[in-house]
From TrEMBL:
SUPFAM superfamilies: (Trans)glycosidases. This is galactosylceramidase. One of its GO terms (biological process) is galactosylceramide catabolic process. Residues 47-403 form the Glycosyl hydrolase family 59 catalytic domain. Belongs to the glycosyl hydrolase 59 family.
Length: 980
């Protein structure tokens, strides 16, 4: 009996059979029977492919990519959404409320009941519009989590149905008016509810189908548009209920005929399993399977979605170097939360609960790292000024599902030819329900078939260290005269190969044996697609993903647009954007693109800013000039936000180090206000997550903070306007108000790098003339970062290199850790210094070698939070170097390494080094022991080179060179018998 047949019997008996362990000697037998291809099931078993969720700032920087690097942006659109076999078929939009329920805030389309809806503020609506230019069949859906206060206030009274409907409807029609598409699905309920609001779902559906008002001038529709809009609007489908931790909507549909008739798709989050309560004939036993298959009291099938799930955690480029496999081996592209984990989630969620659509939250990470839930996406897009985009290997892995089938939604006449999933030829025995683990070697496979039975594809995932042999047989299929099967494979590189050498390539072409079985052994830690399609010469299938490009540091001229490393400006924004040209935007339901003025194209959202909380938007001041406003005032603040912070937004480059940030602030709200400026922000989502920040109100009272701790305070003359500035150079932080220094703070354990933050309280506050400037004599930024898992870094000794279940505050969710004396790590870099970054307890003691020579002996490390430097080395000649660190004692946790730029403006005072050299004089090598001289000699040479005009030397480098020279001289040991 085949494994699939045995599993079917087990499921009927109420037990999900999951084999405990398998070896290469246990072949997996899969029978693809044409009689099991249910061409009449047009909703539940049609394979819809993949979707992307846009919400909570996850897509914010995409609009900057489009403006600054349009070629790269539109290439991204084609890569994800285009072609005959699109990777992504659906853009799901969680409507914003200017509040933060995960990584940031998306703008509310309507901040008050009277405001006209503006969908262009939300990058999700525009992403969908642009995606439709390459895939007109793309689906768009919306739902809510937190609602604007004007809706929330009425909703809390139990009378807010009309307000909720108005918010939905006017947003939907505004997107229709601007972009020409009608939303396909609406979930009227709240995101991740535990108790579906069935009464409101029914109320909303009735309101939707019975609405005849499309002529209201608020909608902006011409008479011709009104008729088309009405028809499309009435065709909107209903989804429910996006639950997380509960699965109540499934049984509700099976026991409520009215609800069943109203809801078109059901979805739930972050688990692969169905519900298994009660007896097999009860509504609580496998309700989602019953909905999808149509094996229910109504005899009708429904769409079942994995309506929110994760992307690949970290970057596969790095995690392949983990030591989490048996005996400290790598798990390759597999392991928990890996690319293969994603594949297994898709397979298991279908096998166990018949979900035929997986929606990534997010597929695109286009917000600054350091916010909650960083590094769990297919594509990273975080440097719009550089145009750098990182396509993870998980894209290739998920293409194994979408490129070897016709995916999407079947049409009303059932003639679109969308491939069906085949339950009898699909199974998963891997462990886990969300973060799934395939290391038990259990089979995990899913079969998709042409409804005409002419072709099929079986995707097999082997996320174990054992090989797995598959025996696949086709019965009652119309495969034609050539039964050749192609085998497409993705796995990590073998020794000596390029990183992507084995990504989605044709591994074999096989024919059935005498018994009619296609036999193939799937390698460990790999995914393969067995397909009867002929894709061996198909250009699109063989197409490689675009190259990532370099992460250029944000360093512009005074316009804020043009890259310029030779002036004093790091970045500037006057919010006028005269330097910006028009931007192309998809419209007409994907039929064309139009060119719009910069601000109009993006709903007046400012450049490069990622909002954590608040309504940040460019508007006109009393003089008619553009300024940045934070609009969320006392009338808008009482929402049900998850991450409740005062309004703040972030801008800039995480590698910025020594700089002065300046901004003009004013208080147009007669009821008050507070303005804040912060520098060196690496992580977090509040103004207090900027390492150093100053806050001031119109009464002139100001306070300077280190993170959220008040350090100093004072009062200046009350005013409606101030110019705030913070200068951060090394450990010295100086605050200015209207050009006068009001506070200087010497931080004994400084945070040295990070972005700029702007903040306010819940009043309308204005910001203008943001400027970030370099400081003479100081290095402005780190020029590059290497992750601790990068393949260029060499490790010796005992190390734990962890990628699974990593912390979002660790770069790429990975760390390398050792407690073994003598363990070492060697890092190649280009620059004048290097930072060793990681959350550490300060116990590690290191010997530091530069270019083969011992430079620092018994170097102490600092107690540091994540993303901060536990050890920093400065003062090297600008150029290529190799740093080797040897752990002498303690524990070291490595996250990343920053290479320090040699771009230093102004004159650097080398007097401290000259003074030290004068005091030392000219010691004779023969007077000292070889070991002590070996440490002194390079410090002595470095000091002499520095005073001779060393390129790239900055003030901190001077301090460190002097300190190393003094310590090395003090450590000289005279030979026995020699006099001082």
């Amino acid at each position: 009996m085949s494994l699939a047949a045995a599993t079917t019997l087990a499921l009927t008996a109420g037990v999900i059979a999951a084999p405990a362990a398998h070896t290469a000697d246990d072949p997996v037998e899969v029978v693809v029977n044409g009689d099991d291809v249910r061409a009449d099931n047009v909703n539940g078993l049609t394979y819809k492919g993949l979707g992307v969720l846009s919400c909570n700032s996850t897509s914010n920087l995409l609009m900057d990519y489009k403006a600054e690097h349009p070629a790269r942006y539109w290439q991204l659109i084609r890569t994800l959404f285009g072609g005959k076999n699109p990777l992504i078929n659906h853009v799901k939009i969680e409507m914003g409320s200017d509040t933060n329920t995960s990584t940031g805030s998306d703008p509310a389309t309507m901040r008050t009941a009277d405001e006209l809806a503006d969908a262009s503020r939300s990058p999700g609506f525009q992403l969908a519009a642009d995606a439709k230019t390459v895939n007109p069949r793309l689906k768009v859906s919306i739902l809510r989590w937190v609602m604007p206060q004007w809706v929330q206030t009425e909703w809390n009274k139990g009378t807010g149905t009309d307000e909720m409907y108005k918010w939905y409807k006017e947003t939907i029609l505004d997107a229709y008016e601007k972009y020409g598409y009608m939303v396909d699905y609406v979930n009227p309920d709240t995101n991740e509810t535990r108790n579906p609001d069935i009464s409101f779902v029914k109320w909303y559906k009735n309101a939707l189908v019975n609405d005849t008002d499309f002529a209201d001038p608020r909608y902006g529709l011409t008479p011709r548009q009104q008729k088309a809009a009405a028809k499309a609007y009435h065709d909107i489908r209903i989804t429910a209920s996006d639950e997380n931790t509960t699965k109540n909507i499934g049984p509700a549909l099976l026991t409520d005929a009215e609800l069943f008739g109203m809801v078109d798709a059901v979805g739930y989050h972050y688990t692969t399993d169905d519900r298994l309560d009660g007896t097999p004939d009860s509504a609580t036993y496998r309700p989602y399977t019953k909905l999808a298959t149509g094996d229910n009291v109504y005899g009708q099938d429904k769409e079942v979605w994995y309506s929110e799930g994760v992307g690949s955690f970290g970057w596969t480029d790095y995690r392949v170097n983990n030591t989490e496999g048996p005996g400290g081996a790598s798990t390759g592209i597999g392991g928990v939360q890996s690319a293969l984990d994603l594949a297994n989630r898709s397979v298991k969620s279908y096998a166990n609960s018949k979900r035929t659509h997986y929606i990534f939250q997010p597929a695109l990470g286009s917000f600054y790292e350091g916010a909650q839930y960083s590094h769990k996406e297919l594509v990273s897009a975080r440097d719009p000024w550089s145009g750098q985009l990182h396509y993870d290997a998980a894209v290739y892995v998920m293409q194994h599902f979408t490129q070897f089938a016709k995916t999407g939604w079947e049409n009303d006449t059932n003639t679109a030819g969308i491939w069906r999933t085949v339950p009898e030829a699909s199974y998963s025995g891997v462990s886990g329900t969300e973060n799934v683990d395939g290391s038990n070697g259990a089979p995990s496979y899913m079969t998709l078939a042409d409804p005409a039975k002419k072709d099929f594809s079986t995707i097999a995932v082997n996320d174990s260290d054992q090989s797995k042999t598959y025996r696949i047989k086709a019965e009652n299929m119309n495969l034609g005269g050539d039964p050749t099967m192609e085998v497409w494979e993705t796995r990590a590189a073998d020794a000596g190969q390029a990183y992507d050498a084995n990504f989605k390539h044709l591994a074999a072409q096989i024919r059935p044996d005498g018994d009619g079985y296609y036999v193939y052994t799937v390698k460990p830690r790999s995914i393969v697609t067995f397909t009867t399609l002929d894709r061996s010469h198909d250009k699109a299938t063989r197409q490689r993903l675009p190259e990532s490009g370099n992460r250029t540091v944000l360093d512009t001229d005074a316009s804020g647009k043009k890259h310029n490393t030779r002036d004093k400006i790091l970045y500037a924004d006057d919010f006028g954007y005269e330097e910006e040209g028009k931007v192309r935007v998809g419209t007409g339901n994907g039929t064309r693109k139009v060119s719009l003025p910069y601000l109009a194209s993006r709903g007046n959202q400012p450049r490069y800013m990622v909002d954590q909380t608040g309504a940040w938007e460019v508007g006109k001041d009393a003089s008619g000039d553009n300024v940045l406003y934070q609009y969320m005032d006392q009338s808008m603040k009482e929402t049900g936000a998850w991450n409740r912070n005062t309004p703040n937004t972030t801008v800039g480059d995480f590698r910025w180090e020594n700089y002065k940030a300046t901004v003009d602030v004013s208080f147009p709200d007669p009821d008050g206000g507070l303005a804040a400026l912060g520098v060196r922000q690496q992580k977090g989502m509040a103004i207090s997550d900027a390492a150093y920040n100053v806050r001031i109100g119109p009464n002139g009272a100001w306070t300077f903070y280190e993170y959220g701790k008040a350090v100093s305070a004072g009062t200046v003359a009350a005013s409606d306007t101030y110019r705030l500035a913070i200068e951060a150079k090394g450990a010295t932080i100086t605050t200015y108000i209207d050009g006068e220094a009001v506070s200087t703070y010497q931080d004994p354990t400084p945070q040295t790098e990070g972005r700029v933050k702007l903040g306010s309280d819940f009043h309308k506050v204005a910001f203008d003339n943001l400027k970030v400037e370099k400081i003479d004599g100081y290095t402005p930024y780190a020029s590059a970062q290497l992750d601790s898992m990068d393949s260029s870094i060499a490790y010796e000794g005992t190390w734990s290199r962890r990628a699974s279940l990593g912390d979002a505050m660790d770069w790429y969710r990975s760390t390398s850790t050792s407690t073994t004396a003598g363990a070492s790590f060697t890092v190649p870099f280009t620059g004048t210094g290097i930072d060793v970054i990681g959350g550490n307890d300060g116990s590690a003691v290191l010997d530091v070698y530069i270019d083969g020579k011992l430079m620092v002996k018994d170097a102490k490390t600092a107690t540091t939070d994540k993303r901060l430097a536990t050890y920093a080395l400065r003062g090297l000649p600008e150029g290529k170097h190799t740093a080797r660190f040897v752990l002498k004692s303690g524990k070291i946790v490595l996250d990343a390494f920053n290479a320090i730029s040699g771009d230093v403006d102004g004159t650097v005072d080398t007097t401290p080094i000259r003074t030290a050299l004068d005091e030392i004089g000219s010691p004779a090598r023969d007077d000292y022991t070889p070991d002590s001289w070996a440490l002194f000699a390079p410090a002595f040479s470095a000091a002499k080179a520095a005073v001779s005009g060393q390129k790239g030397l900055d003030t901190i480098g001077v301090e460190q060179i002097t300190d190393r020279l003094d310590k090395a001289y003090d450590g000289l040991v005279r030979k026995a018998g020699s006099a001082r």
